[in-house]
Design brief:
five-stranded antiparallel beta sheet; mainly beta; 16 strands
Length: 171
Amino acid sequence: NNIVLSDGDGNVRQVIDSSGNVGIGTTSPSRNLSVVSTTDTSVEIKSGNTNQSSLWFSDILDGNIGGVLYTHNDDTMAFRVNDSTKLAISSGGAATFSGKLIVSQSGADMIDLTRSSVGTYRLAISNSDAFSVFDVGANEDRLTISSGGDATFSGQVQPNSIYFDESGVRS
């Protein structure tokens, strides 16, 4: 037996099925909570202006082992994994990571660093395991370090800033 909530016109709005699953916008929820719509769907978690809105992921032994938290008084969002914050994003967009940042894709792995007044530089690891700093605007590698440790520079090296001799590099 299901518990059904309908509006005044008989349209089903919410269902609790015999398994305890709750459906909003559906008469047959497939999960503990199913929110279904034929248009945009959203779920709102609202708190006071200086409080926190949270979505927690728990298990039997830990009530807050993971979560997504939004702190309203400083407008920051945090992602918690294994009971500690691993990523925090400030209201200005600065992201703070705890642990390693791993970027992986097929082909070259890369991170673009952009500053509006300067341009975009790309940190990349090529298919041949070379590391490079690539100037996107100039379409040119500025620094390449091969997997064997050989370095190649492009552009100007400032006088008196770096010296090369048979024993290596000295600054």
